[in-house]
Amino acid sequence: xxxxxxxxxxxxxxxxxxxxxxxxxxxxxxxxxxxxxxxxxxxxxxxxxxxxxxxxxxxxxxxxxxxxxxxxxxxxxxxxxxxxxxxxxxxxxxxxxxxxxxxxxxxxxxxxxxxxxxxxxxxxxxxxxxxxxxxxxxxxxxxxxxxxxxxxxxxxxxxxxxxxxxxxxxxxxx
Length: 174
Hints:
Elements: E1 5-6, E2 12-14, H1 23-32, E3 38-42, H2 45-51, H3 63-68, E4 72-75, H4 83-93, E5 98-101, E6 105-110, H5 113-135, H6 144-153
Parallel strand pairs: 4-5
Antiparallel strand pairs: 1-2, 3-6, 5-6
């Protein structure tokens, strides 16, 4: 009920709530990443807290982060709702499905709304796990080799013998 659909000119075409003040960011992402069909911007508690850290999220703690989310970008802080924020986010959308907005919130980009929502939910889960690990003294970091082994196990994850699903494992958005 809270979703708002806009066209590429930023005109609201559906939804009872007024379009987001971050419309410029949404449009910039859609223009920068042709595979993007849905953009979710939210202020989930743990993901937003993660965005306030002065570094990119570590990729050597939870290998599954790389499998499900890929590398996560952190856009530098810019005032909300401004062209300046859209300008720093758009280039990141070309290579990242998840972008944390420094001291603001997060963005998840997908080939459809379900894919974007899954990414946003996964970011929140991993951010909460990271927060919990930090509460008890910090994480045990995995080596590059350990990460590579896990990533290798996921190369054919979900594939069934005799069914060609190679299209699903291309550069399409999650």
